[in-house]
Write a structure and sequence with these properties.
alpha/beta; Aspartate Aminotransferase, domain 1; Aspartate Aminotransferase, domain 2; two-stranded parallel sheet; 15 helices; globular; binds (2S)-2-hydroxybutanedioic acid
Length: 397
């Protein structure tokens, strides 16, 4: 029966990582997959994570099953991290949070849930969006469409076009927004734009799904959830999928959550039972270890301070690299204005070069980035920035 299978091409981001790992060039640079790297090119286990893991090792008494919705203490700690104490308290039982196997698991769970709530729903994603959004969610059987988002020539959000499109989206459809640190372009909505999106969602009645994978890596833990909190306060319904991969460095542990708000506690209770049944049918229960680490950190003031200080260092490093990169590009006589990189947030920005130029960077200079020219800024360091800028000058001259 396996004779009929046809090979699938590798995911563009993961395929590039495999190529990078095989490359023996000692000057190779990985600007592909979105993982944080420190100055020495490592993706360290955060110090608060190490401490929480030591506590678990000492004190955990059982590894029996938890639940399809995961750990209750993780779920409430995550809800408070996203929403803040006051909004979370005012939502009360209108809000439920369900632990998921990473942000990807949360997105897939949301897709299954949306399909059950409205099998005709179209999910509207930004143009461009993260390369895995559609593959992840489309197997649930949903339709997809795009709304205009990033203007490659002005390197900014095409907000008027975006809002004009949102104004045509009907109730029953879902609009997927990036909570902060847009992947792949790094261009985020400003506060007044979030207000306009909020008003449009209220007026049109479509449902908003926010993908929040980078809280704390843009402007700060509170600043990065401005949009999430605004919409949570005002919209009758909202889904937020959050990930602890990047801000806790827990990538391989698969820690994420789906937070759901409806306009009535009874609806939230019913919806939670539907989501729990999907989780049970797909993977039964999410993995526990990483979620336990996160809840220990968030509920322990000393660990929490340690974590947020290290996260601030990571954020400051990325923002500093953005400035340094723009300066070095300016100083190296490369044609074009790259100052937009300094304005963008989070790990990613597009360089704005074409596919042959990207291929040349990969093949001739061992500088690895995806064909869209998206770079992971965190992959740059003092040691490799010179090689990167010289390589960029070569392929653009
Ligand atoms: C990325 O966009 O590179 C990250 O979100 C990692 C991934 O799984 O694609």
């Amino acid at each position: 029966m396996f004779n009929t299978l046809k090979p699938m091409s590798a995911d563009p981001i993961l395929g590039l990582l495999a190529l990078y790992r095989e490359d023996h060039n000692t000057h190779k640079i990985d600007l592909g997959i979105g993982i944080y790297k420190d100055e020495s090119g490592e993706t360290p286990v955060m110090s608060a994570v190490k401490k929480a893991e030591a506590l678990i090792l000492q004190s955990q008494k059982s590894k029996s099953y938890v639940a399809p919705t995961g750990s209750a203490s993780f779920n409430s700690a995550i809800a408070e991290l996203l929403l803040g104490k006051d909004i979370n308290a005012s939502l009360g039982k209108r809000r439920a949070t369900i632990q998921a196997p990473g942000g990807c698991g949360g997105l897939r769970l949301s897709a299954e849930f949306i399909k059950k709530a409205n099998s005709n729903a179209t999910i509207w994603v930004s143009d461009p969006t993260w390369a895995n959004h559609i593959p992840l969610m489309k197997d649930a059987g949903l339709k997809f469409a795009t709304y205009p988002y990033y203007d490659h020539s002005s390197h900014s959000v095409k907000f008027e076009e975006m809002i004009n499109c949102l104004e045509t989206i009907p109730e029953g459809d879902v609009v997927l927004l990036h909570g902060c640190c847009h992947n792949p372009c790094g261009a985020d909505l400003n506060q007044s734009q979030w207000h306009q999106v909020n008003e449009t969602a209220l007026a049109r009645g479509f449902t908003v799904l926010i993908d929040l994978a980078y809280q704390g890596l843009g402007d700060g833990l509170e600043e990065d959830v401005f949009g999430v909190r605004l919409l949570a306060k005002t919209l009758p319904e909202l889904i937020v999928v959050s990930s602890c991969s990047k801000n806790f460095g827990l990538y391989r542990e698969r820690v994420g959550a789906m937070t759901l708000i409806t306009d009535h506690p009874t609806k939230t209770e019913i919806a939670t039972s539907v989501i729990a049944a999907s989780a049970r049918a797909m993977y039964s229960m999410p993995p526990d270890h990483g979620a336990e680490v996160v809840q220990l950190i968030l509920n322990n003031p000393v660990l929490r301070d340690d974590w947020s200080a290290e996260l601030a260092e990571m954020r400051n490093r990325i923002n500093g690299l953005r400035i340094q990169l723009v300066e070095q590009i300016k100083a190296s006589d490369i044609d074009g204005d790259y100052s937009f990189i300094q304005e963008e947030k989070g790990m990613f920005s597009f360089l704005g070069i074409d596919v042959p130029q990207v291929q040349k960077l990969v093949k001739e200079h061992s500088v690895y980035l995806v064909d869209s020219s998206r770079i992971n800024v965190a992959g740059i360091s003092n040691a490799n920035i010179g090689h990167f800028v010289r390589s960029l000058r070569d392929v653009t001259s």
